[in-house]
Amino acid sequence: MIGKRIGDLVAGLEGRVIIFRETVPGPDGSLERLLAARDELYLALAGPGGEVERLPREFRERVLDSASVDFTDRIKTITGGAGFENVLVAADSPECIRQALGIAGVLGRVYLFSPPRGRVSADLHNTLLYKSLTVKAAPA
Questions:
Q1: CA angle 48, 60, 68 (to 5 degrees)
Q2: Which terminal residue of the chain, N or C, has fewer Cβ atoms less than 10 Å from its own Cβ?
Q3: What is the tens place of the pLDDT at every residue in 11-54?
Q4: CATH: 2.60.40.10, 3.10.129.10, 3.40.50.720, 3.50.30.40. Which one for 4-137?
């Protein structure tokens, strides 16, 4: 299930949005409704993505494996090299948060839905400072 907090936040954002999750949300249809309502919405999976097959074919190309070797190249292709305007992290993996900072574009916004389960190591100069990113806890 894509939680109401994520759905509400996505509805109010402009520009491209990517959501980092550990797995595909449950079969309640919430992800499918979000994907249908917004062409520039993507899902990055940090865990096993076996349930991607249950999504309608037209949405599967918008689900990315963040562990794949071509993940960064796919992000560059999708965004024209500019990165995502909005990155929502609904996973507690430090690696997801590091990747989220990396794929956010200049002046991008990164929303954290839960605290990391460990230390997050990131190049602050090239992520936060150079890109002038905004990183904040997702609204309650």
A1: 45
A2: C
A3: 889 999 999 887 777 667 777 888 888 889 998 887 665 567 77
A4: 3.40.50.720
